[in-house]
Design a protein that fits this description.
Elements (H helix, E strand, L loop, with lengths): L1 H9 L22 E3 L5 E4 L4 E12 L10 E13 L2 E13 L4 E5 L2 E9 L5 E11 L12 E11 L4 E11 L14 E11 L5 E9 L9 E11 L4 E10 L7 E10 L1
Antiparallel strand pairs: 1-2, 3-4, 3-15, 4-5, 5-6, 5-7, 7-8, 8-9, 9-10, 10-11, 11-12, 12-13, 13-14, 14-15
Amino acid sequence: MLLVAFHVYGVEDADFDGVDDAIDKCPNTPFSDLADAYGCTTSSLYTPTSYDIIMGLNLSSMNANTLENTKTSNATLQADIYHGNFSAQFLTSYFKSQDSTYSDSGWNDSQINLFYLFKPTTEFMFQAGVGVIAPTYSTGYSNEAADYLASLSLQYSLDKNIHLFGGYSYTMVNDNDVGNLLNYQNTNAFYAGIRYIGSKNKSISASYTNSQSIYSGVKPIETLSVGVMLPLDSHWFLLGDYRYGISDSASDHEAALRVGYTF
């Protein structure tokens, strides 16, 4: 016991890395780091956390809630948290539709999503997600309910610049039917595309999307889209999208511009 006490109290280790200060070549090692015999970090248990917030404006020739062919604008807000392979996302938007005979505005449904990223190889990665769609959109029939979704997205790198991507999602729609006016259904959606990443992480992508409508009897919504991502500096970035509808159930033209900040 005396020997143990002498050993414990006879060592000075200011950064608690298990190495005596007299031979510690890397003082002030973080408590979350594993150190070698000289007190220098060999690996860290610390996982960084980052955040971003993205705001934007979406212009469409169709109201996605009512399928009315009216000019519609959506002010969008997205917030993300990243911690290691985990991430969480919040999405919401406020719409306004108007033409000579029709006017409507309000909140669209909001989403909360959780994701986990898998990287089996350096070329291939996939991300699994689950989410809740909160009924912040009002149909006027008091039939709204929370919906649930599951998703899987994939990416394969052909080289450092060219990436193939795709994904699938399934949404369980729980809103109550309203007589013969509104009849809902669970939906499937998938997309596939290609992305080119240039210098300073600037990128351009092209993709195809096929998504079932939440309303039964409506043809799947098919679109072709082009997107760009432009970093402005280490924090600010711009996102731009254009979608062309190739089915009668899709908006003929849709464009979005968003600005984001990461910290």
